[in-house]
UniProtKB/TrEMBL annotation:
Domain EAL stretches: 24-274
Organism: Allorhizobium borbori
UniProt-recorded name of the protein: Diguanylate cyclase (GGDEF)-like protein
């Protein structure tokens, strides 16, 4: 993200670039203020379903910033900004607390996945911060899954590896997010201590095109061969849903099944009448 933003910046000239930098600095100021006030950044929760039973099995916590003047700012804007300005751990903590608050009120069979940026994961204090948060909310660590990107998982950096190991030792699970978009080798995947893969939505979107279903099928087979579960991200159509079910993809997530919801809305979907949300799966 940072690189792409940088390139766009240089493509503009003179005053435009000044303006852009001013905007960025203003947004950074606003983000600091928002974190200090602690009311405009919160998590929403996108339900994830078992493809065989159609049951809601977990949710993904996604950060939202409702800017006082500008309205909602996309995570693709403020997460990279937070990473570059050292504010990401503060956002991470808000999302983790919101997640625990939601887990407290959900049945113990439901888990929640939280996205973790590379910077957080490399911090030596990260495992203790996560585990003490879980402890203070009295949440079983096995109900938390941390989503990391392929590049982070594959890089053999000491701090990251030992942090993953100590959190997994305590029962926290790990998933590789946006799988297929990074540069991991089969050799490295073979040695990964990871519990789940999430197939990037670009593969799901292209699934109807020739050869792509086979690719998704291979990803599912690979995950299962390694004893991992696998989730499809960005399921938007009934035919994608049916194809993924037939391929024995374990879990499904996407707008077809549910958009990200407020905590209360997400909680109300658990075990409720399934005709609206799960209809597409049930019919499949
Ligand atoms: P992600 O972790 O891959 O999350 C999935 C994104 O896809 C979310 O976008 C979600 O709203 C969107 N999505 C879900 N289903 C569909 C669908 O069917 N179609 C389409 N087109 N999109 C779908 P969102 O919420 O805008 O988040 C974007 C990214 O920002 C996330 O991608 C994640 O990388 C990052 N992010 C979000 N929250 C956090 C956070 O708390 N911490 C960190 N470090 N990163 C976060
Ligand atoms: Mg994610
Ligand atoms: Mg993803
Ligand atoms: Mg992503």
């Amino acid at each position: 993200h940072a690189k792409a933003a940088g390139r766009n910046t240089y493509a503009l000239f003179g005053e435009h670039m000044d303006e852009l930098l001013r905007t960025r600095r203003a947004l950074e100021q606003d983000l600091r203020l928002a974190l200090r006030e602690g009311t405009t950044i919160e998590a929403v929760f996108q339900p994830v379903f078992a493809s065989d039973t159609g049951e809601l099995t977990s949710m993904e916590a996604l950060a939202r910033w409702n800017h006082k003047k500008l309205g909602p700012i996309a995570p693709d804007i403020f997460i990279p900004l937070a990473e570059e300005t050292g504010l990401i751990a503060d956002i991470g903590q808000i999302i983790l607390d919101d997640t625990c608050r939601c887990l407290v009120d959900a049945p113990s069979t439901v888990s929640i996945a939280v996205n973790v940026s590379a910077i957080e994961l490399a911090s030596p204090s990260f495992p203790l911060r996560v585990l003490s948060t879980l402890e203070s909310w009295e949440i079983d660590p096995s109900r938390l899954e941390l989503e990391i990107t392929e590049s982070v998982a594959v890089e053999k950096r000491g701090a990251v590896e030992s942090n993953i190991a100590s959190l997994r030792g305590a029962g926290v699970r790990f998933a590789i997010d946006d799988f297929g978009t990074g540069y991991s080798s089969f050799a490295r995947i073979r040695t990964l201590e990871i519990d789940r893969m999430k197939i990037d939505r670009s593969f799901i979107q292209d699934m109807e095109q020739s050869g792509n279903k086979e690719l998704v099928s291979a990803m599912i087979a690979m995950a299962h061969a390694r004893g991992m579960k696998i989730t499809a991200e960005g399921v938007e159509t009934l035919s994608q849903c049916q194809a993924l079910k037939a391929l024995r993809c374990d879990n499904l997530q996407g707008y077809l099944l549910s958009k990200p919801l407020s905590r209360d809305m997400a909680l109300s979907k658990i075990g409720s009448d399934t005709s609206e949300t799960l209809g597409p799966i049930a019919k499949a």
